[in-house]
Amino acid sequence: MNVIEAKCRGRGIRLTGQRRLIAQVLSEATDHPDAAELHRRVVQRDAGISLATVYRTVKRFEAEGILEKHGFHDGPARYEPTSKAHHDHLIDADTGLVIEFKNEAVEELQREIARQLGFDLVGHRLVLYGRRLKGKGRGKSKG
After folding, report:
1. Which of 29, 31, 9 is nearest to 20 (CA)?
2. Which CATH number is correct for 3-81, 3.90.550.10, 1.10.760.10, 1.10.10.10, 3.60.15.10?
3. Entry's Pfam families (predicted)?
């Protein structure tokens, strides 16, 4: 049983064969696919699954807290399994590649800004957009 399927079962979500396949493809993803890309991957295994079924399924999984929906810039919504491990994202403005990162100095700066403004930080979402410097290597990427 994959991670998403296990979360569905834990929340009492009935898993049809189509939902199970969508959950499997999402669990195997090493990137942040949008619904169209997810559909492309799913129909390679079952041509009978419609794009509408993919949209309904990701919407349900999102509503149940199983998937996290990201709206990066002006592109389509992209999805990743909900995780307790916080991370931020850097988006390659030229390719759309999503790079996950964690930086404790950035985290502390955000907490300090909140404190200075009289708040206790309870959550945040940081998305950076950039262009690769010439001659620089790749970070941990999850497109």
Report:
1. 9
2. 1.10.10.10
3. FUR
Domain ranges of the chain: 3-81, 88-130
What CATH architecture does domain 88-130 belong to? 2-Layer Sandwich (3.30)
Q: Which residue has the tokens 């592109």?
A: 75
Going along 2-137, which residue ranges are E strands? Answer: 67-70, 78-81, 88-92, 98-101, 127-130
Tens-place pLDDT, residues 4-57 = 999 999 999 999 999 999 999 999 988 889 999 999 999 999 999 999 999 999
Q: What's the full length of the chain, in residues?
A: 143
Residues 58-116 have pLDDT tens digits of: 999 999 999 988 887 777 888 888 876 788 889 898 988 888 899 999 999 999 999 99
> Cα 59 vs. chain centroid, distance in angstroms?
13
Residue 128 sits at φ, ψ, to 5 deg, of: -105, 145
What tokens appear for 9 in the block?
């079962």
> Are the C-beta atoms of residues 38 and 49 closer than 8 Å to each other?
no
